[in-house]
Structure formats: structure tokens, C-alpha cells
Amino acid sequence: MKGSLIIIAFFVLGIVVGLQSSTFNFQFSTFILYALMFCVGISIGSDTKTLKSFRSVNPRLMMLPVMTIVGTLAGTAAASALLPHRHLFDCLAIGSGFGYYSLSSIFITQYKGAELGTIALLANILREILTLLCAPLLAKYFGKLAPISMGGATTMDTTLPIITRTSGQDFIIVSIFHGFCVDFSVPFLVTFFCSL
Length: 196
What we know:
Layout: H1 2-18, H2 22-46, H3 48-53, H4 64-80, H5 88-95, H6 101-112, H7 114-142, H8 146-151, H9 160-167, H10 172-195
């Protein structure tokens, strides 16, 4: 209950800050983004056990993050053909969020405006929700790596428990490694496609 109230309080705070002038909003969201990236770096760098365990990952499985990125971008490019009112690079920027909605939506809002940032937020939240709901079906019909690939950047945190349950304990390190690599690519790919 306490955790839910904290989340709601931050949501309300976000609305209040968003109602302020655009200059204040831009500066505030930029500082929040820097703080978020700093915290992610601290959490990854301080967990030396996880970083050392990456050495035990099968070299063939190290291609999974690359294939997730390529597959997502290819699917996003195909979907953009069905959306003639949206530019290809805008769609690729949204797809490059890989489920990391808190980071990608801020970048896209700053580069392309609130409308596209909101679409990115919803698309990336939807990716995470679909992973949480469909992981058992994906593992059953497409293999144990499918939930990891669908989870994108979330596989080292929010979707890790469901992936562990459906794919097995053997895929924990693969999932964390995958999430780490995809997570790391988000700021570079999103800003690249937003600048085109």
C-alpha cells in the first residue's frame, strides 16, 4: 500500500511540474534524466557479482541483444509503412525505447515534442505489459529466449521474475546480460533517430 501511494504521489508531482512553464519543465526533466542515468550507472557498477557473471554467458547467446535490437527496428520500420502520417525515423525512435519508457519518452519529448513522447511512453509500457502477460506463451511456442527478446531493456529488472519463472533459472544471467546491453543502447539509438 505504501509503495502504491509513493508512486501516485510522484505521478501527481509530475503533473504539477508539467503544468509549469515549458522552460522550467525542460530544465527539470533534463536534471531528472541525468539523475536517473546516474542512478542506473551506480546500480550496475556497484553489483560486481553480476558484471563478473557476464563472463559465463555462452558466446552465441551474446548475439541475443543484437538480434533483439535488429528485430525491433525491422518490425518498427515495417509498422511505419502502415502509418503514412508518421515519419520513419520518428517510429524508429519510439521503437528504440525497447521498453525503457522512463528514459526514451523523456528524450523523445525533448527532441520531438510531447505528442511523440507520449506515444513512446505508451508503446514502451505496452511492450513491458505484453511481456509480463505473454511470457509463458512465448516460452512454450517460440522457445525460452523469446520472452527475453520481447522484454527488451526490462529483462534485467521488472520482467526478470516472470522470465525466470517461464524460461528457467538457467536464463537469469542471459536475461540480465540482455537487459544490460539493450538498456545501454537506448540513449544512443533514440537520440540518433530523433536527430535525423
